[in-house]
UniProtKB/TrEMBL annotation:
<comment type="similarity">
    <text>Belongs to the glutaredoxin family. CC-type subfamily.</text>
</comment>
<dbReference type="GO" id="GO:0005737">
    <property type="term" value="C:cytoplasm"/>
</dbReference>
<dbReference type="Pfam" id="PF00462">
    <property type="entry name" value="Glutaredoxin"/>
</dbReference>
<protein>
    <recommendedName>
        <fullName>Glutaredoxin domain-containing protein</fullName>
    </recommendedName>
</protein>
<dbReference type="InterPro" id="IPR014025">
    <property type="entry name" value="Glutaredoxin_subgr"/>
</dbReference>
<keyword id="KW-0963">Cytoplasm</keyword>
<dbReference type="InterPro" id="IPR036249">
    <property type="entry name" value="Thioredoxin-like_sf"/>
</dbReference>
<dbReference type="InterPro" id="IPR002109">
    <property type="entry name" value="Glutaredoxin"/>
</dbReference>
<feature type="domain" description="Glutaredoxin">
    <location>
        <begin position="14"/>
        <end position="72"/>
    </location>
</feature>
<dbReference type="InterPro" id="IPR011905">
    <property type="entry name" value="GlrX-like_pln_2"/>
</dbReference>
<keyword id="KW-0676">Redox-active center</keyword>
């Protein structure tokens, strides 16, 4: 868990993904479209990292999105934030994007 927390705090926006996950790809595309360049950590071959994400409450383990070092949620949560307009504000507050 310490490794996940450390990696999540190193960048304004962080996404833990799997290369075979279509929702992970969608999350990355959404962040890029909003002007953010999130740190991407692939957990395809890292079972310990995936377990740590689940222990932190990430369910499913991927995509797991962190903004400003805080767990924001999975794809469903991030899409909800985007629809209600608060995702962009969170990214601005974390200095992941600038206006």
């Amino acid at each position: 868990m310490d490794r996940v927390t450390y990696l999540a705090s190193k960048s304004a926006a962080v996404i833990f993904t799997k290369s075979s996950c279509c929702m992970c790809h969608s999350m990355k595309a959404l962040f890029y479209e909003l002007g953010a360049s999130p740190a991407i950590h692939e957990v395809d071959h890292d079972v310990d990292m995936e377990r740590a994400l689940k222990r932190l409450g990430c369910n499913p383990a991927t995509p797991a999105v962190f903004i400003g070092g805080k767990y924001v949620g999975s794809a469903r949560d991030v899409i909800s934030l985007h629809v209600d307009g608060s995702l962009k504000q969170k990214l601005i507050e974390a200095s992941a994007i600038w206006l």
